Task: inverse folding
């Protein structure tokens, strides 16, 4: 009888110890998850504020550029806003002197960024205005798609999709904010996938096209040679490259200056080409441990003021 009672007591004690261990493990796990969630929320909030500060910095640079060019508004790649911010440790910006900047006490976070001229790209908005597509604008997109080796028919898909997403109202009717039928209205080039383009085609077109809220001319001081060659009839890549090389030594001061480097019969329309810009793309990247947070913003410069029109954040896991 005593042996049976001892065995039952031992079994009961083992069950109690197992229950206590399970409860303790569960409490530790919940505490661990709570700490992880709190740390993630804190890192997310800190990253958002840092990228917001980088965006405000970019807006300040653009404002100072407008102040410097008030007498002669010309935007080119030799200005301070066009210099990218190479990746640097965040403590470098927070340190009060070089000694503190080289210490290891700062956060393991790295910041980089770049300001790009959105008007250095071809604005697809020109394809979605008017009762019919302009033959000139259609040729521009077809030439650009050919130069980047996009699949045949890409220009037609883009034009048809944009015309369906941005319908032109009948004469006298008010323009609807959203089309009642057809595809959703894309807000940027990334969303052209809604029109039926694959990811590889979008990647090829990304550096050369943009979708802005309204019609804009192409800035010949910042546009790549592919965009310049596609913008004008009768201009090949060699002529466009000649203009790109010439503006490095002396940026264009007037739209008519481009005629010196283009073929003789080229018509440079001031409504389609310019030497100044109002729209800029600001990209800020924050690398923290194994993750990278990227923020892309579209900024419109209105005189001395800058307005953020769109903002997108992308959280990426860095592969090691």
Result:
């Amino acid at each position: 009888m005593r042996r049976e009672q001892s065995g039952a007591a031992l079994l009961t004690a083992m069950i109690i110890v197992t229950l206590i261990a399970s409860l303790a493990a569960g409490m530790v796990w919940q505490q661990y998850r709570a700490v992880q969630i709190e740390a993630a929320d804190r890192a997310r909030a800190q990253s958002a504020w840092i990228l917001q500060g980088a965006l405000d910095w970019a807006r300040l640079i653009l404002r100072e550029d407008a102040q410097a060019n008030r007498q002669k508004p010309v935007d080119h790649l030799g200005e301070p806003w066009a210099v990218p911010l190479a990746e640097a440790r965040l403590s470098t910006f927070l340190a009060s002197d070089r000694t503190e900047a080289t210490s290891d006490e700062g956060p393991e976070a790295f910041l980089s960024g770049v300001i790009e001229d959105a008007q250095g790209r071809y604005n697809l908005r020109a394809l979605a205005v008017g009762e019919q597509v302009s033959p000139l604008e259609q040729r521009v997109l077809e030439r650009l798609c050919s130069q980047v080796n996009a699949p045949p028919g890409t220009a037609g898909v883009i034009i048809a999709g944009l015309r369906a997403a941005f319908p032109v109202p009948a004469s006298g009717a008010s323009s609807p904010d959203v089309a009642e039928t057809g595809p959703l209205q894309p807000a940027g080039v990334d969303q052209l996938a809604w029109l039926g383009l694959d990811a590889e085609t979008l990647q090829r077109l990304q550096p050369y096209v943009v979708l802005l809220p309204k019609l804009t001319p192409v800035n010949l001081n910042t546009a790549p040679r592919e965009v310049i060659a596609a913008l004008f009839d009768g201009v090949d890549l060699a002529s466009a490259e000649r203009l790109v090389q010439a503006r490095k030594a002396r940026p264009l001061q007037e739209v008519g200056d481009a005629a010196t480097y283009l073929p003789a019969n080229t018509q440079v329309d001031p409504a389609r080409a310019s030497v100044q810009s109002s729209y800029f793309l600001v990209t800020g990247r924050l690398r923290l441990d194994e993750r990278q947070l990227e923020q892309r913003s579209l900024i419109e410069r209105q005189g001395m003021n800058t307005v953020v029109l769109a903002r997108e954040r992308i959280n990426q896991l860095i592969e090691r």
About this structure: The helical segments are 2-68, 90-94, 98-101, 135-147, 154-165, 199-205, 225-231, 237-249. The longest helix spans residues 2-68. The radius of gyration is 28 Å. DSSP finds eight helices and nine strands in the chain.
